[in-house]
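hey so i finally got around to running the thing on that chain from the lab meeting. sorry it took forever, my laptop kept dying and i had to restart like 3 times. anyway pasting the input first so we r on the same page abt which one it is
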Amino acid sequence: MQHTKIAALTLMLALACWSALAGATLPPPTAAEAQAQAAKKAVADAQAEKDKQALLAKFDALTAVWRGKAAEKGWKLNPPTPLPAPAAAVTAPAAQSAPSGQPDGKLTAVGAQAPVTSEKSATAAPSADVKPAPSPPAATVQTR
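ok and heres what got predicted. didnt touch it at all, straight out
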């Protein structure tokens, strides 16, 4: 039993090392391979968009059937909720030249002169949502 565990662990270690070496030595794709990958991605994206449109059409058909039955059965129908188009900030890729808050990721003179306040280092007042420290036990309570 012990021998089979050691053999299995050795085999797994050998496979892990071999796969790491094999992955590290792969050459970059050629121009033809890159074009083939781009074409494959374009076909997959087109299929995904087609599937998405088919799903939306199915949802619309299902909604129409449900609304028809609801009208027949006297159920209350609310009008469909209109959905706004997504904002440009949601659909556009994020482009940021420097870390947030400071230009070029460097502390400005105003930021350097600002006092450092922290509840942890007791240089700031505690927040309103912080629990107060427990009060000591009453004199009538015996503690060990």
